[in-house]
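As a warm-up, study this chain.
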Amino acid sequence: MNLFGWFKTTPGNVTVLKDVIWLTRQAKFCGITKAVSQGLVEQGASRGTVLVAHFRDCLEELQRISEAVGSSGHLSVASASSLRGNPGSLSCRESETIEILVGERHPLLSHDESILEFAGSLPCRCYLVHHVSLEDPMMRACCGEWVESVLKKLGMADDEAIESDLVARRIKAAQKKISGQTFSDIPAESAEAWMEHNCPEVWRQSQR
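Now compare it with the structure written out below.
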């Protein structure tokens, strides 16, 4: 069953923010670093940030960010799989606010929705946001080079980010397409390896 079918609407304690879209992976992780650093300065004792990744390569980048900005009780890093069905993995009080920052989109929508399910199971207020780059395998599969070309023609720089409803719709459409053409869900170290193993035809098409 689609996880959204359990909720019908977004859980009342969760605010889902628009995806933050970067041109390159380097720019994305620099942007996440700035967002985390700023958040740690601004947030009080009742706020916290959780960096989440689906795949090991992204998780390692987020762990480096955590180490660079100075880890504390207000900042933690977790894999999406460790959160799935495990609300006790994150301790928070009802009076607190948690920002869940996801460093990528999973090719399967159900994996992204599992993070929303986790946020909805917490007793506190949550803000959920995904950071993606056009170099991410998932984005290369759904957006192609035309999006990057259009954005650059509009003057978007590598160190800038946008929020685009058009790109968001293409991501959801691609995830649905991949779900229909995926014959397995074998875990992998990276999104690229996952697509090569589980939906090779979609991945080959994205490389043409």
